[in-house]
Amino acid sequence: MKQIKDFENKAVLVLGLAKSGMAAARLLKKLGANVTVNDAKDLAGTEEEKALRKEGITLVSGGHPASLLDEADYVVKNPGIPYHNPLVSEAVNRNLPVVTEIELASLVCEGDIVSISGSNGKTTTTTLLYEMLKGNENKKPWIAGNIGTVACEVAQEVKAQDIMVTEVSSFQLKGTKDFHPHVAVLLNIFDAHLDYHGDRLDYEQSKGKMFSNMTSEDVIIYNSDDPVVETLAKHSKAQLVPFSASSKQSEGAYVENGWITFKEESILSLKEASLPGAHNVENMLAAVAAAKILGGSTTQIIDVLKTFNGVKHRLQFVGNLNGRKIYNDSKATNILATQKALSSFTQPVVLLAGGLDRGNSFDDLIPYLAKVKGVVTYGETKGKIAEAAYEADVSNIEKQNTLEEAVKTAYKLTEEGDVLLLSPACASWDQFKTFEERGETFIKAVQHLQ
After folding, report:
1. What is the CATH number of the domain that holds 296?
2. What is residue 192's predicted lDDT score, i.e. its pLDDT?
3. Fewer CB within 10 Å: C terminus or N terminus of the chain?
4. Residue numbering of the annotated binding site for ATP
5. Does the residue 3 lie in any domain?
6. Torsions phi, psi of 409, nearest 5?
């Protein structure tokens, strides 16, 4: 770990505890900062408070008093806390630096950072690349970031010759200033998280911050089929390596005659690749390009492409139940993700969808429901998604209050040879804390059908 002096004897306020807040607070303490953690939830008397106190870190919980900013030199905020939060807004008004823990990770990481972002496909691509880089004794890969392992925690272990493969969200990137990946991958951009960002421009600019500090020594791997992604990439000083599922890219990754190809080198026939769906072709191309640039073994790359079974909660194959194939796509928290999931199957599909109502319509889902056998909706958006299914002339439409009830109803609509797919097209927060919790609830409900 780099022993930086940036935070020595500085007063740093960490907003939001959770995993990232705890990790950031502990790292800042190691770096010589005077750390105060603030959380809206009352944590008095909890194990977290006891642990922080023992480590010499102050915890203020149960609210966000503005007085906490009076002595602060820096603010490190949980990525999920929006900028319209009164304490964050006030910090910005006072010109205090407001960053996320990914910024801390980049400052202390000795090895090369690979950052992967996009509206969809981040987790799959990050995991694919991490697996492809394994086996190189001279360059150990580490996996971190929005995928579930806090980056500033992992970064402390990364050696100078190692590679930290990091999934980064727009929430994290918006709070960066000096974040500098050696290789950056941008998969796609479409309307997402606008309730957080306020408008599409802020969302795009947040994604683009991934490239801000890159130089001609660095590499950007970008989706040339997405004009917004291409524009953001070309504003950078870094070397550009495109990937495309629809056209030949001699300087990057593409599909030619049904083969995944990198710079004229045929890697693997798509028929042999394990991941289903057109969207996964893009994810595989991006991962292959990054792995080749980082010195990954072609043998290892091919083996991963043949055997990778997907990421948990992202088109995860749960099993075969009485001739029905069951898939858990709980990570589909927006319409595009569900569109891509539905496009992955040629079999009849019974879809379970629903969740947090962010105020959007589901009209963009209608063309993708045309071949769907049945739709069962639940949660806050059950009425809106059901209306889209009616517009698409889906023959079997049911509404339920909970996911567990929806699973029972959906199974009754299936027959042998069908696919039962959870792909909610919504965030999970109306009934669940996380999409992971929603996915686990789905799996348990399926198990109870047996």
Report:
1. 3.40.1190.10
2. 67
3. C
4. 118-124
5. no
6. -65, -45
* Per-residue model confidence (pLDDT) at position 228: 95
Report CA-CA distances (Å) from 111 to 163, 293, 422: 6, 16, 38
| Closest to 221 in 3D by CA, of 292, 152, 271, 158 | 292
pTM over 0.90: no
68 and 151 together in one domain: no
- Residue 147 has a CB neighbour count (10 Å cut-off) of 18
Please compute Rg for the chain using Cα positions.
23
Tokens matching residue 412 = 């009754």
CB burial of 153-173 (b: ≥16 within 10 Å; e: otherwise) equals: bbbbebeeebbbbbbbbbbbb
Q: Are residues 150 and 90 in the same domain?
A: no
Q: Which two tokens stand for residue 404?
A: 């567990």
For 251-275, write each residue's pLDDT tens digit.
Answer: 999 999 999 999 999 999 999 998 8
Mean pLDDT by runs of 10 across the 450 residues of the chain is 95 95 96 97 93 96 95 95 94 96 97 95 94 88 89 97 96 95 95 76 93 98 97 96 97 97 97 85 97 96 90 85 93 92 91 95 95 96 97 97 97 96 96 95 93
Residue 6 within any structural domain of the chain: no
Instruction: List, as residue ranges, the binding site.
Output: 118-124
Q: In what order do the strands lie in the sheet with 349-354?
A: 316-321, 324-328, 419-422, 349-354, 372-378, 396-399
